Amino acid sequence: MLIRSRSPHDLTESDTTPEALYWNRRTVVAGMLAAGLVPQAVGAVQAAEVNSPLPRLAGKRTRTLDEEWTSYDSVTHYNNFYEFGTGKEDPAERAGTLRTRPWTVRIDGLVAKPQTIDIDRLTKLFPLEERIYRLRCVEGWSMVIPWTGLPLAKLLALAEPLGSAKFVAFETLRDPRQMPGQRSPVLQWPYVEGVRLDEAMHPLTLLALGLYGRVLPNQNGAPVRLVVPWKYGFKSIKSIVRIRLTDRQPPTSWNLSAPNEYGFYSNVNPEVDHPRWSQARERRIGDWLPRKTLPYNGYGEEVAALYRGMNLRRYF
Ligand SMILES: Nc1nc2c(c(=O)[nH]1)N[C@H]1C(S)=C(S)[C@@H](COP(=O)(O)O)O[C@H]1N2
Ligand SMILES: [Mo]
Fold first, then answer.
1. Ligand 1 first shell, C-beta below 6 A
2. Ligand 1 atom, smallest distance to 239 CA
């Protein structure tokens, strides 16, 4: 998302590839696999067993997705977490300095019961679920990830939002000793995000504590991060320490950094291009050829009603 002329994976070729070729994607890939041209290039086996030293974190599977999961290795080594550098492999290399215990999340603002919740109490208060979601980065790549977590709505209900609350603002930890990327002014720190209260309360909006049946690796936003699957990935803020309910639309990091490129809503929309690249297609990590991006990242049936009557070019 830094200033560059194109999206990191060049969609140039796909822009000129005849549509008919995409229909043969499976055949093409199968052929290349048979020829040994793409070892491990096609997504992971949907194995519950991953090679990870992290503690298990089980959840009842409440949502599946009939698509191949992105390999655990890619999910944990191809990250955006600018607190640990701007390179995709920086977070996996450097996020070891983040201390995830003790960890509390402050919930305050326009609520009847402001409170500070210890992360370990969270897992005792609420049953955990496992949900398979697509994640679409604004840069043009996507993944399929099995998350473990709880609906954000449940946590918000605990604090009892007031009738005057209209938005929810989130904040990542700010500590340049633990997060060396914060010594660089690449973004304003701490990283902040926000959604409307109805988006926050939507049953798809997840507070994730784990992935692939294990606690979150630091590089993926340990110990707790947001996952809003119908929005571009940057809305899914990592390593949250504060959740504040407010009556005003809160500032968000990428909108502060480049307001003409990143709007407050940032719903996945193949029809509204980023000023510097198309959003019509995406590359699923592990895939060979690009695929079409779906409106609302494929979650339109469930969320489109939230935006009825809104001009989606203006509120991008
Ligand atoms: N605090 C914080 N949260 C963040 C980011 C970040 O740089 N800092 N990057 C965002 C972006 S751009 C994306 S695409 C997702 C990536 O999540 P993942 O690395 O777990 O796939 O995290 C989002 N959350
Ligand atoms: Mo992203």
1. 79-83, 135, 137, 172, 191, 220-221, 233-234, 236-239
2. 1
From the alpha carbon of 233, which atom of ligand 1 is closest?
14
Give me the torsion for CA of 37, 51, 68, 208, rounded to 10°: -140
The structure's pTM equals 0.88
41 and 80 in a single domain? The answer is: no
- Looking at the fold, whether 34 and 75 belong to one and the same domain comes out as no
Residues 38 and 98 in one domain: no
Over residues 300-316, the mean pLDDT reads: 98
Tell me how crowded residue 260 is: count the other CB atoms within 10 A of its CB. 9
Whether residues 223 and 260 share a domain: the answer is yes
Instruction: Give residue 102's Cα distance to chain centre.
Output: 24
The string of pLDDT tens digits covering residues 248-288 is 999 999 999 999 999 999 999 999 999 999 999 999 999 99
Q: Are residues 74 and 12 in the same domain?
A: no
Q: Domain limits at 45?
A: 8-49
